[in-house]
What does this fold into?
Amino acid sequence: MDFETEEQQIEAIKKWWKEYGTTIVIGLVLGLIGIFGYRYFTAQGELKKEETSGAYESVLAILHEQNDNEKFIAEASIFNLDHSGTIYSNLLSLQLAKLAISANDLGTASQHLRDILNNPQDSTVEHVARIRLARILLAQGETDKALALITEATGDDFRSSYEMLRGDIWLSKGDRKRARQAYEAAKNKASDGPKNPNLEMLLTDLADETDVAEVK
It folds into this structure.
């Protein structure tokens, strides 16, 4: 997984984000706001609830209804300054990172994701940000930093995704044995869910390679 140009790096991240990012963001926006919002707003009070919710929805409408990316970036940045330490700020940072990737700006995308990790308000959002940032580091060839970042993750949530990413990192570093072990761990962690065709293909390729080596 070596990239000769920055354009190849960015395209790899865009492809991954397109495949896995949209569903996660939609799920977070529709699900977490309802579930997490109740706990958050109960503690903050009804007035704060209405103000923060209304401000968030207004900012998000700029992106999804007006399709004005530049205005969204400006308004989301202001929102995050005024409402740092909220789940809404984390969610907007995910959107800002996605737009930065679309603009071929990996540095800005990384900073938005680090903002989430520096002040996470929900474990799910934190895991998503950590995985996406590690993917960017991997695309940039910063394999040791990417590996360290996912090693810091705790708990079993997203463990299959972490192991899949760990396998990609080891494969990029040329350690195919550790890559296969990580992919097998990813498959085991996702045993109750749908099969990942990319994972199955990687395991098959690495298994075939191991069989050939053993014969020799």
